[in-house]
């Protein structure tokens, strides 16, 4: 099967940065939206998909007319959603970072649930150049699925607001990809 380009763009800076935003529908900054639009300017994507959360959706709408797909949402941080990390029990947070499947946030989502959602979103993509405006957790899940990175390796990746990760994807029963570029 023919490969295609998949560009994963993390939303721009939210008004309240540095929090465990998860499913909290935080507002993006105008600068964050502009930075995302600039990243996407010359990609030539045939399809534009986006998380339905405002911080991603606003950036996608500045780029074009996106198809909104909640499967591209960030990990649900449950009771921690919207909190700064220093407002969360440090031992519980450390347990989450060490093993997010065994130690999910209270009332939140396990890593494996995020991976399953993103897997379904990837499976729904047409094999054509695509831009997905999404979140750091969803990008990490996609890299896990497509490139084989282990979860603990993904925490080592700095994915700042507005980062663009470009992949060459080979679809199939078990799709694979190669990273073509990472553009902060």
CATH architecture: 3-Layer(aba) Sandwich
Count up the domains.
1
How would you sum up the global shape?
globular
Q: What Rg do the Cα atoms give?
A: 16 Å
Classified by CATH, the class is Alpha Beta
Named CATH topology: Rossmann fold
Q: Note the beta-strand portion.
A: 15-25%
Broad structural category: alpha/beta
The number of strands is 6
Instruction: Please bin the fraction of helical residues.
Output: 25-40%
| Rounded mean pLDDT score | 96
List the strand order in the largest sheet.
3-2-4-1-5-6
- Determine the N-to-C terminus distance: 30 Å
Keywords: Hydrolase
GO molecular function: alpha-ribazole phosphatase activity
Protein name: Alpha-ribazole phosphatase
Pfam family, one: His_Phos_1
Kindly list the characteristics that best describe this protein.
about 180 residues, alpha/beta, Rossmann fold, 6-stranded mixed β-sheet, 6 helices, about 30% helix
List the helices and strands and how they pair.
Layout: E1 4-10, H1 30-40, E2 47-50, H2 54-63, E3 67-68, H3 90-98, H4 111-123, E4 130-134, H5 136-147, H6 151-154, E5 164-170, E6 176-183
Parallel strand pairs: 1-4, 2-3, 2-4
Antiparallel strand pairs: 1-5, 5-6
